[in-house]
Amino acid sequence: MQEINPVFAAFIGTGFTFLLTSLGAAMVFFFRGEISKSMQRIFLGFAAGVMIAASVWSLIIPAIDMAVEQGKRGWPQAAGGFLLGAIFLLLVDRLLPHLHPGAKEPEGMHSHLKRTTMLVFAVTLHNIPEGLAVGLAFGLAANGGASGTMTAAIALALGIGLQNFPEGAAISLPLRQEGLSRSKSFVYGALSGVVEPLAGLIGVLLAGSIGSLMPWMLAFAAGAMIYVVVEELIPEANLGEHSHSGTAGVIIGFVLMMILDVALG
Predict the structure, then answer these.
(1) Fewest 10 Å CB contacts: which of 25, 105, 120, 196?
(2) How many other C-beta atoms are found inside a 10 Å radius of the C-beta of residue 95?
(3) So what's the pLDDT on residue 148?
(4) In 3D, which of 173, 183, 172, 181 has the Cα closest to residue 35?
(5) How many C-beta atoms lie closer than 10 Å to residue 34's C-beta?
(6) Is 74 exposed, middle or buried (0-12, 13-18, 19+ CB in 10 A)?
(7) How far is CA 100 from CA 92, 141, 220, in A?
(8) What pLDDT does residue 1 have?
(9) What pLDDT, on a 0 to 100 scale, did the predictor assign at position 21?
(10) Residue 124: its pLDDT value, please?
């Protein structure tokens, strides 16, 4: 198989996820009012389901398999990396000022940032582990040169991209409701996804330089993603008395990402 430049592969993968975020943000030009609460719950649940399945099939299982190939037990690296990823996102969540759509009070350290800026930061926080995961997956595939591993990385990028579409809309539409113009709401919504290519670049460089720590890094990305799911996405998807739509979104997202990974991986 012809060798693939890992940085280029990761750039294409994270570029695709960023494109889907931008397309989702462009929905601000088509929606005149608010998205219904039920549709918001479906979007959030779908994103949660995709991230859970991606964490298991695309990150944790490969981390265990790789550790075993290195002559190790497997589970200590996966468990340790997972915990470190969750702790890292916990610290970022506590320190970074951010505001979730629909919330009245911001989270993180006290700041004098505008509400619109903190709304963008909230979605940007989600995109850090997603970009890192895609970068690691493409870096692993390109360095290993296995076609099956490459298709698994493509499946991960596709799944993350699909859930980025509603995430883009979830930031641009609230910004519009905050009083920003449609153009500014679109730009800010799209820029919330810029962190994914940056995190992806970090991931692919780490994959190429310290391959022995790949099990730890894959599990780290999984832990960070699951933190976002449990701390923010699922609670927000189940707000209100009738949260069946959010639950349905989780199930659909999980099954879709599982099929993509198993069928292409």
Answers:
(1) 105
(2) 11
(3) 47
(4) 173
(5) 12
(6) middle
(7) 15, 35, 24
(8) 44
(9) 92
(10) 77
- Distant-in-sequence, close-in-space partners of 144: CB < 8 Å, separation ≥ 6: none
Question: Which residues of the chain, if any, have pLDDT below 50?
Answer: 1, 145-148
| DSSP-derived secondary structure for the chain | -----HHHHHHHHHHHHHHHHHHHHGGGGT-SSPPPHHHHHHHHHHHHHHHHHIIIIIIIHHHHHHHHHTTS-SHHHHHHHHHHHHHHHHHHHHHS-B--TT-SS-BSS-----HHHHHHHHHHHHHHHHHHHHHHHHHHHHHHT-HHHHHHHHHHHHHHHHHHHHHHHHHHHHHHHTT--HHHHHHHHHHTTTHHHHHHHHHHHHHHH-GGGHHHHHHHHHHHHHHHIIIIIHHHHT-SS--HHHHHHHHHHHHHHHHHHHHH-
156-160 long-range contacts, Cβ below 8 Å, gap at least 24? 156/13, 156/54, 156/58, 156/261, 157/13, 157/14, 157/16, 157/17, 158/16, 158/260, 159/50, 159/53, 159/54, 159/58, 159/256, 159/257, 159/260, 159/261, 160/17, 160/50, 160/54, 160/130, 160/133, 160/134
Q: What angle do CA 70, 71, 74 make, to 5 degrees?
A: 80
Structure tokens at 115: 């509400």
Closest of 13, 50, 259, 17 to residue 141, by C-alpha: 13
pLDDT of amino acid 101 = 62
Residue whose entry in the numeric block shows the structure tokens 């970074």:
96
pLDDT at 221: 92
In our burial notation (b when 16+ CB lie closer than 10 A, e otherwise), range 166-183 reads: bbbbbbbbbbbeeebeee
